[in-house]
């Protein structure tokens, strides 16, 4: 659809700041004969020669529109909270609109602007430049064609560093509101807005109608109103991949390229959208890099005017992103990160705040599709009311009313790929040392202490109730798939020192597989030591149930499944039974107890595991790869649960701030029996 001949007449509103980039781009397009900058609206003065002599300068948009005629395109490159009124005036003038990102500051404003564009019959392109990358349609097509296998998630990671000067460069910077007007500046709505919308677009989540719900986890380390360290998470109906974006402006430096990752069963694709580069690592060890070109969005708008080309980022394409912005706008104020968790680097306007370890936190959040609060990061939960998800807090003796020795979590909000289930985390000593880990980067599906099973089968394909990839001998090892089920709590009863629960194990399709009754108990032994008890009983929900592990499916020494305890990072580990010592010697051993002693939280502490009396289950132990201990239900052979023939296990765990001895182990397990 041609809009006339000759270069398009373009006006620019906001010619300083980011407007300078538009001016350079317009100079390029002028050289191609595509566009000519005829006027700017900018109250701040220009240096001599900064603009061409034939460019008219106006103090504001009203003056520009009153003086200029036959404008083809107007670019609005002004602070976000000014967009709506300026955009409406441009559309009313009859010009097409290029509007910087994000388009407006609320969903209500978005609807108003959409109506104005429709009434005017004009084109609106929004300046999310990353969507001009030719990698975006390539990735979307490859994802739709199954090139990456089953895609469980699309994530975005951004780690940048911003100085004090960045947050004080204007009155609106770092503000959620200004003079009662929504500004919604923040890490996901400004600096890394491209990361969020690119991840959503690649995943096919631009339409809010295909999103079940959005949650945001907002934090700030800088002394500003807005968030500078945030997780945005979109949950979508299966089999559509969820989207998780973990972002910070408090990184150690400004060197890292932000990237969007497609997590597939057959390949992982990492898109560095600033440089239009995609790295693909497949399940068989292949590794290649694809490089792409990019279409400038203003040039695309000119093509749409002249030839009817499809806009790469039309206003309607940003509705899903606007739902994210609305969730951030209406969320509670960002949680202020206490000063003891941050470091200050530099001075004056160049001073910047760094959160030590934040890059790893970003990686963990993406790997687990979890928020910083769910990860239990100290800076994310410290001083925050309600930071602990709902569940029982275990306290013993005089510790009642202080930090609990364990917190029971429901796991309901976990990503499907983690096999959502209840778990204990953190588990602490009486002195407060944290003994468990959850969502570790090496195995994000390891969740504190609890019950999980890699393979649960009734009829047809097995359900994964452990999390992570499945062990598939026919495929030669581990492969991701959409096989994850969940364990949900149906009912619970709390009493002093006891929690009783009824649970249901569900397959990937939601069908019931196992009915479980579970009891947790806890009590003090002495001032340094306490005991945790677990009893669970598994009943077939219908026909016979088969429980398998990688070990029973053919992988040697990997029969994990059942009770499992993932330790916090540990040093100088000594693990032993009555007759064996060291990882290789105790892994797979059947013994009445297993003693783990290591340096945890700066001191040597011990955890003693007592074997179930109902069965001679082997111990599963890892030290070198990661620290963990389990009691294996199906070590090297399947375990079957028949109708009327439940499986019961009773275990005891003794936690001590002391370094327990073999003699202690015998006495403590004897007293627990």
UniProtKB/TrEMBL annotation:
Coiled-coil residue spans: none
Q: Which GO terms describe its molecular function?
A: nucleotide binding; oxidoreductase activity
- List, alphabetically, the SUPFAM superfamilies matched: Glyceraldehyde-3-phosphate dehydrogenase-like, C-terminal domain (SSF55347), NAD(P)-binding Rossmann-fold domains (SSF51735)
The UniProt keyword set, sorted, is: Oxidoreductase
Q: Which InterPro entries match?
A: DUF6807, Gfo/Idh/MocA-like_OxRdtase_N, Gfo/Idh/MocA_oxidrdct_glycsds, NAD(P)-bd_dom_sf
Q: Per the database record, which ranges form the Gfo/Idh/MocA-like oxidoreductase N-terminal domain?
A: 9-128
**Residue ranges of the TM segments:** none
The question of whether Oxidoreductase is a record keyword is answered with: yes
- PANTHER family per record: BCDNA.GH03377 (PTHR43818)
Any idea what this protein is called? Answer: DUF6807 family protein
Could you tell me which species this protein originates from?
Leifsonia sp. NPDC080035
């Amino acid at each position: 659809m041609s809009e006339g001949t000759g270069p398009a007449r373009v006006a620019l509103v906001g010619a300083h700041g980011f407007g300078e980039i538009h001016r350079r781009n317009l100079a390029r397009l002028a050289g191609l004969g595509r566009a000519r900058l005829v006027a700017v609206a900018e109250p701040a003065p220009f240096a001599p020669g900064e603009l061409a002599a034939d460019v008219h300068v106006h103090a504001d948009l009203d003056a520009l529109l009153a003086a200029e005629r036959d404008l083809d395109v107007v670019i609005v490159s002004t602070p976000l909270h000014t967009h709506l009124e300026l955009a409406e005036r441009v559309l009313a003038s009859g010009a097409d609109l290029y509007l910087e990102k994000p388009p407006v500051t609320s969903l209500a404003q978005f609807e108003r602007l959409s109506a104005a564009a429709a009434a005017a019959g004009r084109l609106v392109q929004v300046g999310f430049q990353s969507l001009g990358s030719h990698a975006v349609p390539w990735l979307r097509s490859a994802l739709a064609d199954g090139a990456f296998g089953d895609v469980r998630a699309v994530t975005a990671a951004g780690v940048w560093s911003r100085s004090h000067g960045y947050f004080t460069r204007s009155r609106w910077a770092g503000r959620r509101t200004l003079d009662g007007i929504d500004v919604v500046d923040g890490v996901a709505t400004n600096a890394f807005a491209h990361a969020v919308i690119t991840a959503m677009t690649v995943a096919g989540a631009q339409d809010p109608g295909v999103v079940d719900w959005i949650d945001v986890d907002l934090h700030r380390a800088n002394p500003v109103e807005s968030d500078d360290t945030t997780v945005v998470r979109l949950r979508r109906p299966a089999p559509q991949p969820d989207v998780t974006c973990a972002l910070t402006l408090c990184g150690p430096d400004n060197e890292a390229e932000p990237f969007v990752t497609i997590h597939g069963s057959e390949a992982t694709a990492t898109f560095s959208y600033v440089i239009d580069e995609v790295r693909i690592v497949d399940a068989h060890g292949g590794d290649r890099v694809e490089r792409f070109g990019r279409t400038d969005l203003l040039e695309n708008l000119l093509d749409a005017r002249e030839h009817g080309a499809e806009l790469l980022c039309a206003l309607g394409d940003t509705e899903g992103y606007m739902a994210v912005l609305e969730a951030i706008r209406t969320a509670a104020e960002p949680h202020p990160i206490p000063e003891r968790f941050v470091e200050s680097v530099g001075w004056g306007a160049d001073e910047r705040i760094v959160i030590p370890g934040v890059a790893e936190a970003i990686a963990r959040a993406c790997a687990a599709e979890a928020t910083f609060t769910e990860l239990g990061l100290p800076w994310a939960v410290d001083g925050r009311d309600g930071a602990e998800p709902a569940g029982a807090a275990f306290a013993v003796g005089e510790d009642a009313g202080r930090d609990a020795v364990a917190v029971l979590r429901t796991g309901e909000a976990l990503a499907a790929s983690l096999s959502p289930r209840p778990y204990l985390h953190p588990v602490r000593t009486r002195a407060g040392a944290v003994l468990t880990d959850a969502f570790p980067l090496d195995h994000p599906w390891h969740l504190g202490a609890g019950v999980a099973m890699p393979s649960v089968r009734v009829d047809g394909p097995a359900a994964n109730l452990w999390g992570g990839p499945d062990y598939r001998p026919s495929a030669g090892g581990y492969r991701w798939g959409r096989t994850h089920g969940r364990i949900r709590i149906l009912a619970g009863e709390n009493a002093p020192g006891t929690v009783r629960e009824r649970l249901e194990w569900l397959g990937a399709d939601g069908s019931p597989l196992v009915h479980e009754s579970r009891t947790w108990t806890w009590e003090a032994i002495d001032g340094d030591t306490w005991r945790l008890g677990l009893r669970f009983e598994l009943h077939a929900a219908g026909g016979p149930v088969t429980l398998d592990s990688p070990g029973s499916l053919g992988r040697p020494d990997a029969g994990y499944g059942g009770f499992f305890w993932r330790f916090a990072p540990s040093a100088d580990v000594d693990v032993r039974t009555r007759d064996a010592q060291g990882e290789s010697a105790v892994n797979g051993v059947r013994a009445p107890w297993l003693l783990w002693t290591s340096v945890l939280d700066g001191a040597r502490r011990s955890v003693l595991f007592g074997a179930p009396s109902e069965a001679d289950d082997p111990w599963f132990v890892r030290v070198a790869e990661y620290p963990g201990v389990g009691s294996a239900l199906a070590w090297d052979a399947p375990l079957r649960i028949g109708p009327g023939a439940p499986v019961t296990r009773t275990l005891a765990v003794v936690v001590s701030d002391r370094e327990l001895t073999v003699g202690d182990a015998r006495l403590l397990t004897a007293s627990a029996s």
